[in-house]
Write a structure and sequence with these properties.
Blueprint (H helix, E strand, L loop, with lengths): L2 H30 L10 H55 L6 H22 L2 E2 L2 E2 L25 E3 L5 E3 L4 H5 L5 H13 L3 H54 L3 H34 L1
Antiparallel strand pairs: 1-2, 3-4
Helix pairs in contact: 1-7, 2-3, 2-6, 3-5, 5-6
C-alpha cells in the first residue's frame, strides 16, 4: 500500500468516524426527544436548564406549603361558618323566648335546644384536620376545649413559607376566636340558664352577649377569608411561573422533530457516502498492492 493511499484512507476513516458520531447523536436525540442530553451538547443551555430546575424545585415546595395551608384554612372557615349558624340559631331562640307569649314550659324546651347548641359548639371548636386540632395553637394533639368551655390550647400561630420572603399564619388560636371579652361558651351557657330559670331579663341580656360572640367569630372568619384569597393568588402566580419556566426549559431541551429527522437523513446519506469512499480506497489500495 502506497503512502499516499495510507493518507487518503486515514482521512476517510476520520471522516467516517465523525459522520458516524453525528449520525448516532441524531438517533439519540430523536429517541429521547431532546436536543440536550448531556452537558457537552450545550454547556450554556445545560447550565440554564439546571438553574430552571432548581427554581421549579423551590416552586414545588412553596406549592406544597400553600396546599397544606389552604386545607387548614378551609377546615377553619367551615368550622367558623358552622359556629356562626349556631349563634344565629341561639339568638333566634332568645328573641322568641323574650317575647310576652313565651311560657316557663316553652323556655324549658328552648333551654334544652340551647344546651344542644352548646355541645355542638364545643365539638366545632374541637374540630380536626386529620389528627390535628385546628384551634389549639401549637398543641395540635390536644383537644383545645373542655366540655365546660375551658381552653387547653395555646396562643401560637402556625406559619408557612409562601415565597422567598413571606410567611403566612394558617391557623386561629381558639382563645382569640371563642373566648376573650366575648366568650361564646359563657354566652350560650348564660342563655341556657336564663331559659331554664325563666329569667326574662337574663334572656334579654343573652341576646346582646350572643350577638357580640357572633361578631367576634365573624371578624375572625373575615380574616380567614383574606388569608384564603392570599393563598389563592400565590397559587395562581406560581402556576403561571411554573408554566413559564417549563417553557424556557422546553425551548432549550426539546427537539424540533421535523428538523431532527431531516438532519438524521442527511447524516445517514453522508455516512453511506463515507462508507463507499472508504470501500473504494480499500479496493484501489489492494490493486496497487497486488501490482
Amino acid at each position: 500500500m502506497r503512502v499516499t493511499d495510507l493518507g487518503r484512507f486515514s482521512t476517510i476513516a476520520n471522516n467516517l468516524s465523525q459522520v458516524t458520531e453525528k449520525m448516532l447523536e441524531s438517533q439519540d436525540n430523536i429517541s429521547s426527544g431532546k436536543q440536550v442530553n448531556k452537558p457537552s451538547d450545550n454547556p450554556v443551555g445545560m447550565t440554564q436548564v439546571l438553574s430552571y430546575r432548581s427554581d421549579l424545585a423551590s416552586l414545588s415546595q412553596y406549592v406544597r406549603n400553600l396546599d397544606q395551608g389552604k386545607a387548614f384554612l378551609s377546615v377553619t372557615e367551615s368550622a367558623l361558618n358552622d359556629m356562626e349558624n349556631m349563634l344565629v340559631n341561639a339568638k333566634g331562640i332568645a328573641i322568641s323566648q323574650a317575647s310576652g307569649t313565651a311560657t316557663p314550659s316553652s323556655r324549658q324546651t328552648a333551654a334544652a335546644q340551647v344546651e344542644n347548641l352548646y355541645d355542638q359548639a364545643v365539638a366545632t371548636a374541637n374540630r380536626k384536620l386529620g389528627d390535628r386540632y385546628i384551634f389549639a395553637g401549637f398543641k395540635t394533639a390536644t383537644a383545645p376545649f373542655s366540655s365546660t368551655g375551658a381552653y387547653n390550647g395555646d396562643s401560637n400561630s402556625i406559619d408557612i413559607q409562601i415565597d422567598e420572603t413571606s410567611r403566612l399564619a394558617i391557623n386561629l388560636a381558639g382563645d382569640a376566636v371563642f373566648k376573650g371579652s366575648n366568650d361564646l361558651f359563657t354566652a350560650l351557657d348564660g342563655l341556657r340558664q336564663s331559659l331554664a330559670t325563666n329569667d326574662s331579663a337574663g334572656i334579654q341580656n343573652a341576646m346582646d352577649t350572643i350577638q357580640a360572640a357572633h361578631d367576634q367569630v365573624l371578624a375572625n372568619h373575615t380574616d380567614i377569608g383574606a388569608r384564603m384569597n392570599r393563598i389563592q393568588l400565590a397559587q395562581d402566580n406560581f402556576s403561571k411561573t411554573e408554566v413559564d419556566i417549563k417553557s424556557l426549559v422546553s425551548n432549550i431541551e426539546d427537539l424540533d422533530m421535523t428538523k431532527a429527522i431531516t438532519e438524521l437523513t442527511s447524516r445517514q446519506t453522508a455516512y453511506q457516502a463515507s462508507l463507499m469512499a472508504s470501500s473504494k480506497i480499500m479496493q484501489m489500495s489492494l490493486v496497487n498492492f497486488l501490482s
